[in-house]
Amino acid sequence: MTDVLQTSSVVSKLFRSEQGGHEQVVFCQDRASGLKAVIALHSTALGPALGGTRFYDYATDEEAALDALNLSRGMSYKNALAGLDHGGGKAVIIGDPEAIKSEELLLAYGRFVASLGGRYVTACDVGTYVADMDVVARENRWTTGRSPENGGAGDSSVLTAFGVFQGMRAAARSQWGEPTLRGRRVGIAGVGKVGHHLVEHLIEDGAEVVITDVRADAVDRIRARHPQISAVSDADVLIRTPLDVYAPCALGGALNDETVPALTATIVCGAANNQLAHPGVEKDLADRGILYAPDYVVNAGGVIQVADELHGFDFDRAKAKATKIFDTTAAIFDRARTDGIPPAAAADRLAEQRIADRTPAADWLRPEAG
Ligand SMILES: NC(=O)c1ccc[n+]([C@@H]2O[C@H](COP(=O)([O-])OP(=O)(O)OC[C@H]3O[C@@H](n4cnc5c(N)ncnc54)[C@H](O)[C@@H]3O)[C@@H](O)[C@H]2O)c1
């Protein structure tokens, strides 16, 4: 009985979800290698579905399938606003990667990606790495996030940080009239791969930076290069420190019922995924006059990079696309003002509009279109 209920929950999400459901979901099994995977294609309206492969030890298969459905839908929105000719997809491989990941399993997975004939383009996600994508790519032409030696684009955090910086400049212009962080105090929680590149952009722009990280070595590495940067003990202290901008660059859920009332910053713009802990937080931010730059919009530099890899990676071309995160973020703030809704809701509306109209990237957010 439980099995019947669980299956029906996945199927109803698939066909009857209020967001219009998914186009295609593929359940994959290779008994020889132990591969169990779900590839979810939410939409190919704008082009081949693009999104990474999560390798995770889910509590149940049902949970894995639902995660694939949710994550692939998120990729449709992210890719639409990243200005890519890609729809949204995501795959999950079920199991503990430490225990079951093998070359045989990754090759079997690569054959399933191949079976979709280009409708799905994969990349890295939690639990999968560049070296894994090199293996998956041996079985198909639709694998990105490979190593530079294998035609890949390498570390995506460089363009992710650059994109977050563009989003922050757009937020600064909206809040203070000038697209610069010069003279502003920016607090960064998490100075890992993305956060430490973001520090460099901000210093170059003339901002004052305050950082925190649970890893002392990450803080030390920054302060060795920039001794003027101050560090605080944790994110709770950081949000209460006088700031103009708060940049969550560590884990999700940074904006919640405890942190939003305590924030001193009037802009939130960072790389972390899923910053809003639950629906309604976006309104709490707006009610406090805090401008929130939607996470999935400003952190799209990484997906812009892997999308470029499909055409033979060209850093300058990818960077030019990531520069447009400024225009997209500005368009979202405009739409939020016009419609009287929080920026997170405005972002969703813009994405849904582009998907419904099937607007090619070349025609989207042209200057004359506003
Ligand atoms: N790397 C990318 O290209 C990319 C793209 C899109 C989104 N993101 C998102 O951006 C965020 C950062 O990614 P990353 O690649 O820099 O990861 P990372 O693991 O390199 O860096 C995260 C840093 O945050 C620190 N941290 C963890 N918990 C913390 C806490 N409670 N308080 C303060 N610091 C804490 C870690 O010690 C680490 O230094 C993640 O949410 C990731 O999903 C990354």
TrEMBL record:
It is found in: Cytoplasm. It catalyses: L-valine + NAD(+) + H2O = 3-methyl-2-oxobutanoate + NH4(+) + NADH + H(+). This is Valine dehydrogenase. Belongs to the Glu/Leu/Phe/Val dehydrogenases family. Its main location: cytoplasm. Homodimer. Pfam families: ELFV_dehydrog, ELFV_dehydrog_N. Its EC number is 1.4.1.23. CDD domains: NAD_bind_Leu_Phe_Val_DH. It comes from Streptomyces fildesensis. InterPro entries: Aminoacid_DH-like_N_sf (IPR046346), Glu/Leu/Phe/Val/Trp_DH (IPR006095), Glu/Leu/Phe/Val/Trp_DH_C (IPR006096), Glu/Leu/Phe/Val/Trp_DH_dimer (IPR006097), Glu/Leu/Phe/Val_DH_AS (IPR033524), Glu/Phe/Leu/Val/Trp_DH_bac/arc (IPR016211), NAD(P)-bd_dom_sf (IPR036291). Pathway: Amino-acid degradation; L-valine degradation. PANTHER family: LEUCINE DEHYDROGENASE, VALINE DEHYDROGENASE.
